[in-house]
Amino acid sequence: MTDPSDLEDIPGTTVFTAQRSRKGYHLNQFCMSLMKAENRARFKADERAYVDEWPMTEAQKQAVLARDYNAAIAEGGNIYFLAKIFSTDGKSFQEAAGTMTGMTAAQYAQMMIDGGRSPEGMRSIREGR
Amino acid sequence: MARITAGVATSHVPAIGAALDLGKSREDYWRPVFAGYEWAKEWIAKSPPDVVVLVYNDHASAFSLEIIPTFAIGCAERFAPADEGFGPRPVPVVEGHPDLAWHIAQSTILDEFDMTIINKMDVDHGLTVPMSLMFGQTDAWPVKVVPIAVNVVQYPPPTGNRCYALGEAIARAVESFPEDLDVQVWGTGGMSHQLQGPRAGLINREFDNAFLDRLTSDPDALRRLPHIEYLREAGSEGIELVMWLIMRGALGRSVRELHRFYHVPASNTAVGHIVLEPVAK
């Protein structure tokens, strides 16, 4: 059995736990609605009006409108659900993932070509490894 | 009787599907990825199985947060490619094998695995990208498929040990199916990757290659690998690798490695691919 505190001990990583799933339920279900073309069209036509149809918190709505994926994850969003937003924007997983790292899209793409981010020093906050 | 003839594992990166669908597979970035599957494409074309039991995960396509089955088995006649937010992939509808699927469902449930039975399900890139990698662009897939969808999105996914044991139960089910069928079991997802947060882009070649080695040399060590190790070492999405252990468990104690490919990157992900054959005891 994994110690729950271990799940919070990985640098720069948010594990989609039960608590986050409950907090993000309506945010993630809003994202699911974007799998239908007619909903994508309505969202694009008036994003604010569309998010207001969902019982999300204002912080969740702001994260969506700003495309701030780190904020959306902090509000209970899960990346596979949030993917429906950037797919609606015509953006790739790589572009979206890059925005969460503080790097430019070009820097992030180059890091991946160079072999990706090393796990060295990124495994554990507590143990500093 | 039906028999399990081989196991295949592969990553199922959505960008690989997009590259193929948009005609980019010969570009410098993608050529080495597709080249890594040439061996397996020729190998499977020579003697395609009748059915593939295809272990994958749904990425918030068929299953939202409303219902989250840990292990689900697709028993439908056919499965349509899902619209993941940019229209469905232009690939053939996946034909099921309801007789075998229901048999596996019954057998594994009575074997004490609490499977969810699915009679209607669209299948996303998790299932269709491996099909494209193994069979290329085609008007009709040459095999029938029994989809096994595993939750790896909502924490916790099933343990590696449970996945391995389910693979063993699937093998018992297949071997008791009266029709004369060649069946392969595929495990998909991974290898190391993280799609979220400031640590996005994590890749761990050492972990991935040790994982590939241990599928043959020490599967018991993989059974015992806890979730936290996948999360720390292989990234938050690298935990998909538990699904490979269902494939491995279905092949029995001893296996021979026929082929291996490893490449970084495809988009955010380390691509791993292995072909294994059971060795008779």
List the helices and strands and how they pair.
The complex is a heterodimer of chains A (129) and B (281).
Chain A: H1 4-7, H2 18-23, H3 25-33, H4 37-45, H5 47-51, H6 58-66, H7 69-74, H8 79-88, H9 93-99, H10 105-113
Helix pairs in contact in A: 3-8, 9-10
Chain B: E1 3-10, H1 14-21, H2 31-35, H3 38-46, E2 51-56, E3 71-74, E4 78-79, E5 94-95, H4 98-110, E6 116-118, H5 125-135, E7 144-150, H6 160-175, E8 182-188, H7 205-217, H8 219-223, H9 227-234, H10 244-250, E9 255-266, E10 269-278
Parallel strand pairs in B: 1-8, 2-7, 2-8, 3-6
Antiparallel strand pairs in B: 1-10, 3-7, 4-5, 9-10
Helix pairs in contact in B: 1-5, 4-6, 6-10
Features:
heterodimer, A: 129 residues, mainly alpha, Protocatechuate 4,5-dioxygenase, Chain A, 57% helix, B: 281 residues, alpha/beta, Protocatechuate 4,5-dioxygenase, Chain B, two-stranded antiparallel ribbon, 10 helices, 10 strands, 34% helix
Which architecture of the domain at 16-89 in chain A per CATH? Orthogonal Bundle
CATH class of the domain at 16-89 in chain A: Mainly Alpha
- Give the biggest sheet of chain B: 8 strands, mixed
How many structural domains can be distinguished in the coordinates of chain B? 1
Mean pLDDT of chain A: 96
What is the name of the CATH topology of the domain at 16-89 in chain A?
Protocatechuate 4,5-dioxygenase, Chain A
Sheet-strand content of chain B, in percent, reads 15-25%
